[in-house]
Design brief:
Structural class: alpha/beta
Radius of gyration: 15 Å
CATH architecture: 3-Layer(aba) Sandwich
Strand order of the largest sheet: 2-3-1-4-5
Number of domains: 1
Helix content: 55-70%
Strand content: 5-15%
Largest sheet: 5 strands, parallel
Shape: globular
CATH class: Alpha Beta
Bound molecules: shikimate-3-phosphate
CATH topology: Rossmann fold
Order of helices and strands: EHEHHHEHEHHEH
C-alpha cells in the first residue's frame, strides 16, 4: 500500500477531499499545514510573517516526510510543497499523487478574502490565484499520477479518486 497525496493550489479542496477519503477508506489523515502548525504552535500565516517563506518551506518538507512514512496515510499537501523538486520526486516515487485541478474563479470562491493564506492575504484573490495556478500548472501536472477535475463538490472528487484506486 502507498500513501495517497493530494496536491494542487489553495482552494482546490485538498483538505476537505482528504478528510472524506480518510473516513471512507478508513485510513489516517495527515494535513501538512496542520502538522506544521501543531509542531510550531503557530499558524501558517504567523510562521510566514515571523520566519519567512523559505523557512516555512523547510518545515513543510519535514512534515511531508513524516506523513509519507505511513504507507496508509491520506495526505493533504500544502499547495507549494511540490515546488521543491526533491518533494515532487519523493511523492511521485513513494505515493499515489492526485492533482486537484480547479479554475482560479472556483479556487477564489472557496478561499474568500484569503485570510490565513499569506500568499493571497490583502491581494486581489482571483488575480493572485490565477497567477499562482499559471506558474505552477506544469509542476502539478508533472508531479501527479492522476489529474482530477476538482470543480465539483468534494464528495464527488473523493468518489472519483476512490474509483481510480479500485
Ligand atoms: C501555500 C498553500 C497553503 C499553505 C501556505 C502556502 C502555497 O496551503 O501551505 O499558505 O504556496 O500554495 P493550502 O494549499 O492547503 O491552502
Amino acid at each position: 500500500m502507498k500513501p495517497l497525496v493530494l496536491i494542487g493550489p489553495m482552494g482546490s479542496g485538498k483538505s476537505e477531499v482528504a478528510r472524506i477519503l480518510s473516513s471512507s477508506l478508513e485510513r489516517p489523515l495527515a494535513d501538512t499545514d496542520e502538522m506544521v502548525e501543531r509542531a510550531n504552535s503557530r499558524s501558517v500565516s504567523q510562521i510566514f510573517h515571523e520566519i519567512g517563506e523559505p523557512a516555512f518551506r523547510g518545515l513543510e518538507s519535514r512534515a511531508l516526510r513524516e506523513a509519507l512514512s505511513d504507507p496508509t496515510a491520506v495526505i493533504a499537501a500544502g499547495g507549494g510543497i511540490v515546488l521543491d523538486p526533491l518533494n515532487a520526486d519523493l511523492v511521485k516515487k513513494k505515493a499515489r499523487v492526485f492533482y486537484l485541478k480547479v479554475t482560479p474563479e472556483t479556487a477564489a470562491l472557496r478561499i474568500g478574502n484569503g485570510n490565513g493564506r499569506p500568499l493571497v492575504e490583502g491581494k486581489e484573490v482571483v488575480e493572485e490565484i490565477a497567477r499562482i495556478i499559471a506558474d505552477r500548472e506544469a509542476i502539478y501536472d508533472r508531479a501527479a499520477h492522476h489529474v482530477i477535475d476538482a470543480e465539483r463538490e468534494p464528495a464527488a472528487v473523493a468518489e472519483s479518486i476512490e474509483q481510480l484506486l479500485q
